[in-house]
Amino acid sequence: MNKAALAGSLLVLSLASLLSTPAPAQLFGRDPKPQKTRLLTGKVLDAGDSPLQNAVVYLTNTHTRTVKTYIVGSDGVYRFPALQPTTDYEVYAQYNNRKSGTKTVSQFDDRAQMYISLKIDTKADANAK
User: Fold this and answer.
1) Rounded to an integer, what distance in angstroms lies between the CA atom of residue 63 and that of residue 66?
2) What is the pLDDT of residue 26?
3) Is the Cβ–Cβ distance between 55 and 94 less than 8 Å?
4) pLDDT tens for each residue of 68-93
5) String of b and e for 59-91 (b: at least 16 CB within 10 Å)?
6) In whole angstroms, what is the distance from residue 99 CA to residue 93 CA?
7) Would residue 102 count as lying in a domain?
8) How far apart are CA 119 and CA 129, in angstroms?
9) Structurally, how many domains does the chain consist of?
């Protein structure tokens, strides 16, 4: 057998073995999980559970410290779609210089949809005079 034929046969065998090797996910009998995102929704409410129109909701990525905001409508509802499941977030609301408590969305909570109500006491300093 000449060298050219031997090299050609070796090349064909190498390509055939590469194409027949299973992908790493197939080696373990499962496909890799597709990257899913999460949805955070909720309401901004006063102490009497009434919605607070025009409250601003702040969502902070605790890793990058980037902040997203949402101005709620008359129903008090906010919505943050497409959150990364491997990231922790902090969320709070502000209305007329008053702030709700800060809530955490944990990467260890595996729910695809989360609902968090944020309460703001709009009369906190009324008796402080």
Assistant:
1) 8
2) 52
3) yes
4) 999 999 999 999 999 999 999 999 99
5) bbeeeeeeeeebebeeebebebeebeeeeebeb
6) 6
7) yes
8) 23
9) 1
Residue 65: inside a domain: yes
CATH number of the domain bearing residue 109: 2.60.40.1120
Q: Which domain holds residue 90?
A: 38-119
**Residue pointed to by tokens 């260890």:** 108
Nearest to 114 by CA among 41, 43, 59: 41
CB of 122 closer than 8 Å to CB of 47: yes
Nearest alpha carbon to residue 104 among 40, 35, 49: 40
Structure tokens at 60: 């902070």
In a domain, 94, yes or no: yes
The rounded distance, in Å, linking the Cα atoms of 65 and 122 is 28
pTM of the model: 0.70
- Residue 123: pLDDT band (50, 70, 90) is confident
Nearest-Å Rg of the Cα atoms of the chain is: 27
Distance CA 50, CA 71 (A): 16
**How many Å apart are CA 65 and CA 96, to the nearest integer?**
24
Q: Has residue 124 been placed in a domain?
A: no
